[in-house]
Every structure is written in structure tokens, then in C-alpha cells.
Amino acid sequence: MSLLNRILPMCKAYAYMEPMIINGTIDHLKYGATGELLCQNIRNEWLYSNVTSRDESVFQFCNVGEKYFNDILSLKDPIMNAKQFSNNQLPFSFADSRSLCEQPDLMDSGVGDRKCFSPKNFTRFKYFAFCIPEESQQFFYHWQRQRKIWWRKFSANPGRFSLTEISIDDNGQESTEIRAEFEWGQETIETIRNVNTKMFDSLEPAEQEMFFSRVGKRKVLPHVVESETSLEKACMVFLCDGYTELPYHNDRREVFRFHRKLAPYKITFAAPLLNAKRADELRQLSIYLGLNLKKSGISTLITPHLAKKSLESQFTDSDCLGIPYIAVLNESTLDDGILGLRSIETTLEEKIHVANLTSYVELLIKNY
Q1: What is the residue-wise DSSP string for 121-175?
Q2: Which residues form the Anticodon-binding domain (predicted)?
Q3: What's residue 112's pLDDT?
């Protein structure tokens, strides 16, 4: 059974996503409640890397309901804002993480393993760097490394990501691809191009004038480096990357293991089977602790079956959702306030006091 044939039933059962097939082609990915959280975290991390933490100013834009065959047309309005906010001085950049796009031509249409990575309709993640002409080549090499580092940082298997050799097309445009290795072969997940000034060639002189910027007092046409992937590709990459099979008695069980920054839920609660009174007290405690975690911005899953199922069954449900931490409550927690914090990575528990739970989990989630 192929990797995706094993993953897709889990994705549907645990509300991650389901490919929607129309006329024999995957039209789009339909996300469930858990999948929406995963996508939100992926987008947040992409924005942090491509916008928030950049040295230069990066301006976001989005083309809602507009389809452009030439990306430069979509930048006509954002460029005016960028020039105003940056005093018309290079470098500056643009980022688009919300535009809904459609594949121009779906070749060898079907629903094989690769098709979930490239549905007909997708949300693009695209970055345009408007560089100082003399620095564009150096930035092109730098940006390749940065984008590869980003993918590797969240992966359980960083070695699966690689950069292709730089190719040059008929127009002299350099490009390279980031690829991920899966059991069916390599999947292209991001493309980086050194466009230089070629994206302005189709414009009339009057339109080109709009894009001229300054380096000091010198007036120049920016050299452009761009990178492009999609939310759907990123989601599929991390679902395939996080899927693993673990020994379970005489069999194996399937789980997801996500980086804690991407995990839809960061923490949940579990407790052993107890009598009704003590179980209810532990449920009330889990609700109180869960609300404190949520108020601190930590995505927390408070389950109704706490102390109603075996601990092993609760751990299995949590692992299938890819939750990195479980706060394990027991009868003694009600007396001394000590709980066990179980990690999905090690399956070991460390003992901490309930009063320190929120601050400690905040610290764990903050670090990469």
C-alpha cells in the first residue's frame, strides 16, 4: 500500500483534509477542523520567515478574485505603497500568502500520489525580492539556502530535502527547485528564480517607469528574485513527513509527529480510569488548566473522555492527532499538584507542578 493510501484515511478520520475529486482530477483539498489549524500554523511560520524576520521591509498583498497571467500586473498597486513607505529606496520585498489560484494546465490528470500536492485550485505562497542590481545574484544564492533551511527546520527527516542544480532557460533566467524525497520519488515543492529585470520586459516604457526605484541617488530598475510554493504543497509535505508507524504490542500503529510549531494542538490531557467522583474532579482540573493554557495562546485540546478510557487509548488518540505534549493527571495530582508531562517524541514523562504548567509549556513551544 502506498504512503498516501495509508495517510489519507487517517487524514479523514482525524479531520485533517480530504482531496475533492471532480471529473477525475483533484480539484482542491478540503480541510477539517484539525487541518485548518495545521494550515494556519504553516502560514504563520511562512510569514514569520518571509515577512516578520526579514532585514528589509516586506509588504504583503493579495489578489482576491483577480487572475493575472503576468505577476508584474498584480504588483502595480503594492509597488506604490512600498515606494512610499520605504522612501523609494531599495531593497524591499513583497509576499503573498492568500491569493487563490488555478493550475493553468493539469497534465497527466489523475489522482495518483503526486496529485494531492498540486490540486487544480490552490493557495499560493509567493515572495518577490526587489534587489539592488549589484546584489541580486548573491541574494539568489542566499535565498536558496534560506528556503531549504525553512523546510528542513520543521521536518522529522531533514535529509529528504535537496536543491537541484541551477538551470538557465532560453531567456537567460536562472532557476532552481527544492525537492522532497518520498517513496514514489522526488516531489518539487518550491521554485526559486532569479528574474532580474525580465519581468518588466512586457511593460510599456510608461508602465516601467512606475517600478523604477533608487539606490542612494541613483535611479535603477530593481532586479527581482522570486520564490513560490503553495499551502497545499506545504500541508501535504508535512503530513507525509510526519506520518510514522510505531510498534504496538504485536502489531504497529500509525501516528503523526509534527514539529511543535506546526502541530494543530500543542497539548492535551489524559488520566487513568478512576471512580466517578475522582474522575470528575480530574476533568474539572483539566478544564481549569486548559483554559489557562488557551489564555496564554497555547492551542489546547480538552477531551470529554478524560478518565473514561484507558491511558493507552488516550495516548493513541493524541498521537494520531500529532499532539506533542500530554499532561497526565492522576489521583495524587489532586493531593500534591504534581502531574506528568509526556512527550510524543520520547514517550517519557517529566514531573511538574500544576502551577508551573502554563509557563513551562510556553517555554517549550517558544523554542524551535
Answers
A1: EEEEEEEEEEE-GGGHHHHHHHHHHHHHHHHHHT-S-GGGEEEPPPEE-TT--EE
A2: 279-361
A3: 56
